[in-house]
Design goal:
Helices cover about 30% and strands about 25% of the residues. It has about 180 residues and is an alpha/beta fold. A 4-stranded mixed beta sheet has the order 1-3-2-4. It has a two-stranded antiparallel sheet with strand order 5-6. A two-stranded antiparallel sheet has the order 7-8.
Length: about 180
Amino acid sequence: MNTTARSTAPDAAAAAHRIPIAIAPGDGIGPEIMRATLRVLGAAGARIETFSVDVGQEVYRRGVPSGVSLEAWDVLRQTGLLLKGPITTPQGGGYKSVNVTLRKALGLYANVRPARAYAPFVPTHYPEMDLVIVRENEEDLYAGIEHRQTDEVYQCLKLVTREGCERIVRYAFEYARARAGT
């Protein structure tokens, strides 16, 4: 396996208590964002041991249509955690988004987005806003069923299943119920 381990733990004594995490720096500005993120985590005292994985543009160029190397999947299975930067999906046919590939392979069907107003510090029309948006993350346009009808027309099918709808509704309901009254 071709991974690079970098310790961000403050000292060697804490090494036994570090949490292993896969790191995918990403493409474009991704590596810069990842370096800054790891500096912040280090300064905050996060006890993590990082393992770099290859995903994205370079992996696509090596002929892997998913954009995720086999070694990366091995590390993801071992760590169970992934911190990733922005990842480029090449334009043109035959390429799947790494984000969608990861979501589907790992069963990450729920996109959970908290939204809260920070009034009076940040002016807003809704100073009492405190809500969570739960969005389905694998079906609909993420199904990736697309084809070219003509040189000028592309078609994308939106597939939504009963099972997928029930699963996301159940998740949102349980999420709300677990937080009721908090």
